[in-house]
Structure of Major facilitator superfamily (MFS) profile domain-containing protein:
Amino acid sequence: MASAALPEAVEPKKKGNVKYAFTCAIIASMASIILGYDIGVMSGASLYIKKDLKITDVQLEVLMGILNFFSLIGSFAAGRTSDWIGRRFTVVVAAAFFFAGPRRRLRHADGWPLRGRRRRGLRADDRAGVHRRGVPGVGPRLPDVFINVGILLGYVSNYAFARLPLRLGWRVMLGIGAAPSVLLALMVFAMPESPRWLVMKGRLADARAVLGKIADTPAEAAERLADIKAAAGVPDDLDGDVVAVPKNSNREEKQVWKELILSPTPAVRRILFSTFGLQFFQQASGVDSVVLYSPRVFQSAGITDDNQLLATTCAVGVTKTLIVLVAGYLLDRVGRRPLMLCSSGGMAVSLVGLGTGLTVVSRHPAGGGEAVPSWAVGLCVASTLAFVAFFSVGLGPMTAVYTSEIFPLRVRALGYAVGVACNRVTSGTVSMTFLSLSSAITIGGSFFLYAGIVALSWVFFFTCLPETRGRTLEEMGELFGMKETGIMPPEDADGSSSRLLSSESTA
């Protein structure tokens, strides 16, 4: 009788590799906390900066919005820098900018704090190209959560240090943001370097060691190494601990620019149009006016006590942080399109409520002898919280996810970069015009205007953005009418598609 064939031995999976990879992701995403803190802390600190330095609303708008424009430099420099010195040391450089900004504000106590703001702007997206490199639809979630945690910490800092003397309080609020930068720079040395960067530098032994720590089995690590070598253009016959890797020419980069910008196909033009629309409407919704100027909004709503102002602002941060966790849970269960439509519809209704409440309050000026209706104040607070909740469950996190999914892999990095450039320019424009706009058409009128823009965004999302949940790359191309799939090379093992992978922002 023939003996039964013995089953092949199943290679045991290692324990702890997922935990190790998750720890590395947490460390890398810590930069998002610092960025979020800088955004959140400015909302409350701006009240005291204006009082202490006696600056105008126009100067304050410049201070609040300058981060977005300088972050463009850091955004486009991140890809080059990370290819040159590696992902880990790029994080260290970004942390140095994080540290230098608050220190400069503290040292120049009598000066205009814009210079420190510029430094932080230069690093704001320099950190994004390093830690937001994951599987599309998954990678952006952790940084989104951490940015919102940072915003909440900034609000809490405002509340905690508001009782200090005017000259000292806002400087401590801003200066304390330097401490986490040092911690980040130290912790990042516990992270491994990117396997893809190690392969690009010919350090195959180091790449094997890193993949061995994060893969389930040695066989999987070897397979992923082969994929990375193929994606990076390293010949298969090159093997050893350290090898000489042929340098790529600039021809590939020029070809990507041609395919995306100079002579795109109709399908790529449709993808670009969808990306620009999505990135534009995310910021044109007025979210920065709420996040950055929430104390001013609540002042206009009739809340005049500083402690009450900042406590209510903290409620905004708590709402954003909790709801973005809900968005991560719903992302692959509900789908992108339903979340964005629900988000934009809810935001439009919330903005109408906020505009209505602020208009009613503005007709009962302080000292006018007529009490402000309590229902109008309550409507303003409730509408603000509803607005940030609807934003955080859809349009906020979904913009990064959707944009990263719809581009063909060959042009994804550049496509994401130009989309984020549109996002940052729109965000900076909104931040730098809110106070002037409110002065021109009233603060209630400003939010009615934003409500109209968000209503247009709902129409745009409904007509232009197909559902992408669960779609393969080939199916994604078909959604936008892409017949040729030749521009979709295999994705490499660490989630990036070409050496052009650039950074993205946040908002």
